[in-house]
Design goal:
Blueprint (H helix, E strand, L loop, with lengths): L37 H6 L6 H5 L5 E4 L14 E15 L5 E8 L5 E7 L4 H4 L5 E11 L2 E11 L11 E4 L8 H14 L9 H6 L5 H9 L4 H26 L13 H10 L6 H15 L5 E6 L5 H14 L3 E5 L3 H15 L6 E4 L5 H13 L4 E4 L2 H4 L7 E7 L6 H7 L5 E6 L5 H7 L4 E5 L10 E6 L3 H13 L3 E5 L7 H19 L6 E4 L5 H12 L5 E4 L12 E6 L7 H8 L10 E6 L4 H12 L3 H12 L17 H6 L1 H17 L9 H19 L1
Parallel strand pairs: 4-6, 8-13, 8-14, 9-11, 9-12, 10-11, 12-13, 15-20, 16-18, 16-19, 17-18, 19-20
Antiparallel strand pairs: 1-7, 2-3, 2-5, 3-4, 5-6
Helix pairs in contact: 6-7, 7-23, 8-10, 9-10, 10-11, 19-21, 20-21
The chain binds adenosine-5'-diphosphate and magnesium ion (MG).
Magnesium ion binds next to helix 10.
């Protein structure tokens, strides 16, 4: 077994088999020997070209330089160990779960068991003599150790890339092992000459950046934390730099749009059908939006406000104004469920005003979609609500006056622009609590309006932190609420590896569990991201119609759903969620007249976990929570998440990357001031990279 894995063994291949300008060749060209099945196996992961492989970064990293020995494992601990399979056996639990146990021996000679649930196919794969790297939760009784496996790898490396170092963990599928991906990446890196840099040396030095070549190599096989962090910093810097370059180059503050003035009568009419009074903050937001719409300049505004602050009502007013002016309005939502819900809400606000609103989503039949498209073209429909289908199908409007885009961070600038053809006014809505300075930087091309007040009469959601051993109490409480006629959500997180599989497992496992724990009279329904759309819709509709009392779900309900009768949000394994994510989940209840509850069940009862989750018990404001999240988590996490292409980041990333964003933006501005068209000799590679990234985004968009 080799240790370390410093840069020494990752130096550019002397042969430089693969010239840099051939990185975009498909793996099937076999310019580099990655193994006979590489095109197929890696292709299944979406890796088609050598560049895809180079940029296929680990989802996270594990420090496997010093793995614990089995004898030192403590009860309740999450650990990664190496071991050899001695034997295995499969049984069925009383509840009918398939239980697979392997008997293993660690390197120090200690024996222990590992257990897998409901993965019968593993029985064949885990034959005696096989070496494994296993992660999971330790259960210890005296000298007996059992590991509940959350992830494992077969360690079939000749020269181990899989431990004795900081190891990247890639997204893989059942057919392809972690070790396989690591080996393929390593072979590619060995075949590549030093990658040329699109940034001149002086800038690298000024911004404290490592060269691109070092960054890519270290991002896959970091020698230590510092190398990993430097690599991430460089790659993120590039993401933001090109993002800012693209934004700045396409920005034209004087761009003429449509003048869409609102009359006082329009507003009065709108408010007269509203079932409530607008809050002061909503009124202020609406004024800013209407001023923009009235001006001949194209509106590009971000409407930011906590979950439930009433953004949709404000947007509806703006849409009404556009329609009153004889134009159309569109609302684009990130998911099917959200689109349907927005549609229902807009109908409520706009139908009494005679506005013709329609839905357009991918789940509708081709015939229905064509009919809606045709009515949009002729102007027989005033308002359309949809998902990506709105931009993917090249929808034509007779005269689009206002485009509203919900949950911006899921779309990205280019998609936003695609909807925006014909220069309508654009309103982006986001519930992501980002500090103002950062919002201005990240949404550099948008003006900002904040709704900083919740509608009156909301009782804050009572939030409790409960340890897993008191789960029974939690569900007793849920049953009580159901007996009172209320409904509840129960959300369970995904486990990172092989998400596709675990999403189903996690949801069905919990579903079955609850059917057992809860009284038989409680009707439990289930929703997960792998269900076909029609099924998801049916489940949501029946929950909304109170045909189910408890909705078990993976995080697909995270954004948006609005069921005022639901008063309890139970989050299982709450420690696996970020605070801001939990805050969003909590925002799903407390939407009606009844007192609401958020119960966070913490599977891991460590002090740090408790402290982090306590923040939600104490605070109800999204901005405060986002900041606390960052402060508590602190730096030093071995988290190397980086999304390729345009930034698409969680709040934590945004806050922690604030400095990089500022710097990248500064540099982008300086570059464009010096050379607006990137014509200079030094800018050749920069221009190429910008063009490549822009077109890559276009490709991604239509997929
Ligand atoms: P957001 O889009 O910001 O999450 P919504 O516009 O969906 O918020 O509003 C959340 C809920 O609050 C909806 O049920 C809506 O009818 C209601 N609501 C919005 N504005 C007000 C208000 N001013 N007073 C009372 N209820 C409101
Ligand atoms: Mg909303």
């Amino acid at each position: 077994m080799r240790t370390g894995g410093g840069r020494g063994d990752l130096a550019p291949g002397a042969a430089g088999v693969l010239a840099v300008d051939r990185l975009d060749e498909p793996l099937s060209s076999r310019l580099v020997d990655l193994g006979a099945h590489a095109p197929k196996k890696l292709g299944a992961l979406g890796i088609r070209t050598y560049r895809d492989l180079l940029t296929y970064l680990p989802r996270r990293y594990e420090d496997r330089r010093l793995l614990p020995i089995v004898a030192a494992l403590e009860d309740g601990q999450n650990a990664t160990v190496t071991a050899r399979v001695l034997s295995r056996s499969a049984t069925r639990s009383r509840r009918g779960l398939h239980v697979l146990r392997a008997y293993l021996e660690g390197p120090s000679g200690h024996r222990f068991t590992a257990v897998w649930f409901n993965q019968p196919w593993l029985e064949k794969q885990l034959y005696p003599g096989l070496d494994l790297v296993l992660s999971g939760r330790v259960r210890r009784q005296g000298g007996r150790v059992e590991l509940s496996v959350t992830g494992f790898e077969v360690d079939d490396d000749e020269a181990s890339l899989s431990f004795g170092r900081i190891v990247g963990v890639y997204r893989t599928d059942q057919a392809t092992s972690q070790a396989y991906v690591r080996r393929a990446v390593m072979r590619l890196l060995e075949a590549l000459p030093t990658l040329p840099d699109h940034l001149p040396r002086t800038w690298l030095e000024r911004y404290g950046l490592v060269p691109l070549d070092v960054a890519w190599r270290d991002a896959h096989f970091p020698a230590d934390e510092r190398a990993l962090q430097a690599a991430m910093r460089r790659l993120k810097f590039d993401d933001f730099l090109f993002f800012e370059l693209a934004v700045l180059r396409s920005r034209d503050p004087a761009r003429l749009g449509k003048s869409q003035p609102a009359t006082p009568e329009d507003l009065e009419r709108f408010e007269s059908v509203l079932p409530f009074e607008l809050t002061r903050a909503q009124r202020r937001a609406l004024e800013e939006i209407l001023a923009d719409m009235a001006a001949p300049r194209q509106m590009a505004r971000l409407l930011q406000g906590d979950v439930g602050s009433g953004k949709t009502a404000v947007a509806a007013a703006a849409m009404f104004v556009a329609v009153r002016g004889g134009r159309q309005a569109a609302l684009m939502a990130p998911t099917e469920i959200l689109a349907r819900q927005h549609f229902a809400n807009l109908q409520r606000y706009l139908f009494p005003l005679g506005v013709r609103t329609e839905l357009l989503t991918g789940a509708m039949s081709a015939g229905e979609r064509a009919a809606v498209r045709s009515r949009l073209r002729t102007g027989d429909t005033d308002v359309v609500v949809g998902t990506h289908a709105l931009i993917q199908e090249g929808v034509e409007f007779r005269d689009l006056g206002l485009a509203v885009i919900d949950e911006e961070h899921r779309f990205g600038v280019t998609q936003r622009r695609a909807l925006v053809q014909g220069v309508p006014d654009v309103l982006v809505m986001s519930a992501t609590p980002i500090p103002r300075s950062l919002a201005l930087t990240l949404y550099g091309d948008l003006d900002l309006t904040v709704i900083d007040e919740l509608p009156p009469g909301r009782t804050p959601v009572t939030t409790r932190l409960v340890s897993a051993n008191r789960r029974a109490d939690v569900y007793r409480f849920v049953a009580q609420q159901v007996a009172k006629g209320r409904q509840a959500y129960v959300v369970t997180p995904l486990i990172e590896e092989s998400e596709a599989l675990d999403e189903v497992l996690a949801a069905t496992g919990l579903y079955e569990d609850l059917r057992r724990i809860l009284p038989a009279s409680v009707r439990v329904a289930m929703l997960h991201g792998r269900m076909p759309q029609v099924e998801k819709d049916a489940v949501m509709a029946s929950f909304r119609a109170r045909e189910a009392d408890v909705l078990v779900s993976t995080t697909v309900i995270e954004v948006g759903v609005d069921v005022p009768n639901a008063t309890v949000m139970v989050v299982e394994n709450a420690e696996r969620f970020g605070l801001s994510q939990l805050h969003q989940l909590r925002g799903r209840v407390g939407r009606g007249a009844h007192e609401s509850y958020c119960l966070l069940v913490a599977g891991d009862a460590s002090r740090k976990t408790r402290r982090r989750l306590e923040a939600l018990v104490k605070h109800s404001d999204g901005f405060t929570i986002a900041e606390l999240d960052l402060r508590i988590r602190g730096p030093g996490d071995l988290r190397g998440t980086r999304q390729s292409g345009l930034p698409d980041l969680s709040v934590g990333d945004l806050v922690s990357d604030g400095e990089i964003i500022e710097q990248a933006r500064g540099l982008a501005q300086a570059i464009l001031e010096a050379d607006p068209d990137l014509r200079a000799a030094w800018a050749v590679r920069l221009r190429q990279e910008l063009a490549r990234r822009s077109s890559a985004v276009m490709v991604r968009e239509v997929m």
